[in-house]
Amino acid sequence: KTSGRGRFSFFSNEMNLLAQERLALEAALREALRKEQLHLHYQPQIDLKDGHLYGVEALARWTHPEIGNIPPIRFIPLAEECGLIGELSDWALREACRQLADWRKRGLAVPAVSVNLSATNFHNLELPQLIADTLSTHALAASDLTVEITESLLMDTNPSTMKTLGDIHAQGVRLAMDDFGTGYSSLGYLRRLPVSELKLDKSFVRDLARDEATRALTNAVIRIGDSLRLTVVAEGVEDSTQQELLKAQGYHVAQGYLFSPPLPAAELERWLREHAL
Ligand code: C2E
Ligand code: MG
Ligand code: MG
Ligand code: MG
Known about the structure:
Blueprint: H1 2-34, E1 38-47, E2 53-64, E3 68-70, H2 72-81, H3 85-105, E4 113-116, H4 127-137, E5 145-150, H5 159-171, E6 174-180, H6 187-192, E7 197-200, H7 202-207, H8 212-227, E8 231-234, H9 240-249, E9 253-254, E10 263-264, H10 265-274
Parallel strand pairs: 2-4, 4-5, 5-6, 6-7, 7-8, 8-9
Antiparallel strand pairs: 1-2, 1-9, 1-10, 2-3
Helix pairs in contact: 3-4, 4-5
Bound molecules: ligand C2E and magnesium ion (3 copies).
One magnesium ion is lined by residues 178-179, 199, 201, 235.
């Protein structure tokens, strides 16, 4: 009986600790957003046909003053759960557009920027207007921006989602289906959604060289993309064998450590100039 009680209090302490940690992290994230302590890194996307720059993907980074770097895999789900993802995404959209306009002012021909959004962002019927305002603030065209969505959005039954997606698409902003092949992907959904780009998930790229079944699947994906006239981007390309296999299958664009990791804006600028891109 005594040990039972002891164990109970052990677990409840443990849970308190986790809950406290979470609350502290949530408060820290709220503060980081307010003080603009988040920043974006940018990863180049390379056209496999001619080696030109196709665009860059903006990825959020958070360096906590005491804890240090906290990866997106931790703070994005946290932001989604505690209602901060709206604010985070507004910030990411504005910052990415500001940066693109800034690069262009200084003579860098960056064709487009991609921003990751979460499923709940599309419940917000004001999102299309926010995007339109942000683009016009920086004198950018709708085609300068790509919005990355994940397959989880397809499971979203919120009635606003389809309307918001449709409005964003109607403006001429491109939609990219991120992590393609990992989620609940249904070809029927692909037909209904106004996407312009498919991003093959990096788990497929990782297994490409050693697994024939994976190669058969990636081949099927590029064929689907081509028949629907979508641009197909391979994520997580780390070596030239993967690059060659993807290129041979007809993949249009590749992104990964082989070319460059995601970099702070100034470092990406240097990288682009060095590679004459
Ligand atoms: P994602 O959008 O699929 O982004 C690609 C992830 O792969 C990034 O991880 C990137 O750093 C990583 N990566 C790039 N090249 C390679 C490679 O060659 N090999 C490997 N193994 N990984 C590579 P990161 O930056 O940690 O972001 C993780 C995820 O967090 C993103 O996946 C995205 O879903 C989410 N995320 C990041 N920033 C944001 C944001 O601003 N808003 C939202 N909603 N989600 C974000
Ligand atoms: Mg992405
Ligand atoms: Mg993603
Ligand atoms: Mg992805």
